[in-house]
């Protein structure tokens, strides 16, 4: 029921949909699983609905197409972001960031979905834009916070090249884990944090 300008109560329009959150979450989980299993190109609303245990109508009531569904999920991941490290030192913050990111990138679903969406982004500007937004609001926002905190503590120069700094923070682990896709040797994350901190001090 809603209240009209005159103060009287009126019912919601007949047939107005109330979207159950548990169904929405089941569909979102199914999208991630379907992306990992068949990739974006072969993914279908039918497959998503079957995996979620719902009818196609339940999916279409929430998203107009599989493109809108994937864009929504990518944006949601960006909003969630990563926990902001606060160890009190630049190297400690970098090490914690790399540990959390490494665990996330090791997940088999992430390992399959990210490369597939990157390939799709080369053909689809909307997906490319959503991925860029996710990176800016996720990994890059956390990396920027680490750099700014280090500047405030006096560990880094105030007038450093922030774009280059963010590339140094985020690039190597992503390259190793997602592009080259090789395992990380023992002690690698600690050495990477030390090397990155040293490079940032030179900017």
TrEMBL record:
Organism superkingdom? Bacteria
**What are the HTH tetR-type domain coordinates in residue numbering?**
21-81
Start-end of DNA-binding region: 44-63
Q: Which InterPro entries match?
A: DNA-bd_HTH_TetR-type_CS, Homeodomain-like_sf, HTH-type_TetR-like_transc_reg, HTH_TetR, Tet_transcr_reg_TetR-rel_C_sf, TetR_C
**Pfam families referenced in this protein's UniProt entry, alphabetically:** TetR_C_11, TetR_N
Record's keyword annotation contains Isomerase? no
This protein is called what?
TetR/AcrR family transcriptional regulator
């Amino acid at each position: 029921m809603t209240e009209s300008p005159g103060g009287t109560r009126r019912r919601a329009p007949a047939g107005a949909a109330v979207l159950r959150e548990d169904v929405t979450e089941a569909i979102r989980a199914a999208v991630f699983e379907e992306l990992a299993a068949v990739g974006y190109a072969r993914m279908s609303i039918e497959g998503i609905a079957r995996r979620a245990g719902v009818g196609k109508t339940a999916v279409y009531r929430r998203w107009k197409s599989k493109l809108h569904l994937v864009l929504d999920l990518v944006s949601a991941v960006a909003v969630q972001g990563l926990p902001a490290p606060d160890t009190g030192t630049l190297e400690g913050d970098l090490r914690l960031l790399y540990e959390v990111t490494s665990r996330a990138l090791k997940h088999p679903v992430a390992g399959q979905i990210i490369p597939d969406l990157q390939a799709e982004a080369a053909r689809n500007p909307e997906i490319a834009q959503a991925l860029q937004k996710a990176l800016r609001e996720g990994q890059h926002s956390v990396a920027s916070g680490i750099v700014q905190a280090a500047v405030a503590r006096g560990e880094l120069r105030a007038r450093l090249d922030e774009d280059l700094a963010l590339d140094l923070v985020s690039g190597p682990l992503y390259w190793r884990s997602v592009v080259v896709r090789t395992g990380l040797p023992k002690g690698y994350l600690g050495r990477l944090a030390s090397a990155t901190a040293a490079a940032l001090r030179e900017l």
